[in-house]
Amino acid sequence: MLYPAHENLPPIMRGYTWDHRFLFEVYGQPFNFTGYDLTIEVLENFDSTTTITRWTTGNEITLTDYGLIKIELSPTQTRNLLEGSYVWVASLTTPDFGGPRQTYPIICGKVKVVTCDKVGS
């Protein structure tokens, strides 16, 4: 059984650009993401059926053939998030190998959305 890696994301500040990059390795080697898709869902908790936000390959997520995952959010995207503590799950969907595509959770962790509305007041 494949268990998801655990990684907490840095806080997302509402109304500001946010990005995070990390290397995903399998058995110590960078994973080749060619042909794969990644979806990240931010949830209230791991039992939640309601998604706070969803990020996808080609939009907020860029995957490379040398294992790099880049997540980039605009100020507009972060402004629409509510302040709070959440969890996130990254699910990898396999390429079309001639059969049905498979989806597996590969990374999970915690993430906070914070505001700086009162900073300096």
Keywords:
121 residues, mainly beta, six-stranded mixed beta sheet, three-stranded antiparallel beta sheet, 1 helix, 11 strands
Would you mind describing this structure in some detail?
The structure is a single chain. The chain has one helix at 75-79; strands at 5-6, 12-13, 18-23, 25-26, 29-30, 37-43, 51-56, 61-63, 68-73, 84-93, 103-114. It is built from one helix and eleven strands, in the order E-E-E-E-E-E-E-E-E-H-E-E. The protein is mostly beta strands and 121 residues long.
Strand content: over 45%
Point out poorly predicted stretches: none
Give the helices and strands as they follow along the chain. EEEEEEEEEHEE
Q: Give a quick account of the main beta sheet: strands, pairing sense, barrel closure.
A: 6 strands, mixed
Helix share of residues? under 10%
User: What is the typical, i.e. mean, pLDDT?
Assistant: 92
Radius of gyration: 15 Å
Globular, elongated, flat, extended or rod-shaped: what is the shape?
globular
How would you briefly describe this protein structure?
By secondary structure, this protein is mainly β. It has 1 helix and 11 strands; from the N terminus they run E-E-E-E-E-E-E-E-E-H-E-E.
Task: Describe the secondary structure blueprint for this structure.
Blueprint (H helix, E strand, L loop, with lengths): L4 E2 L5 E2 L4 E6 L1 E2 L2 E2 L6 E7 L7 E6 L4 E3 L4 E6 L1 H5 L4 E10 L9 E12 L7
Parallel strand pairs: 1-11, 2-11
Antiparallel strand pairs: 3-9, 4-5, 6-7, 6-10, 8-9, 10-11
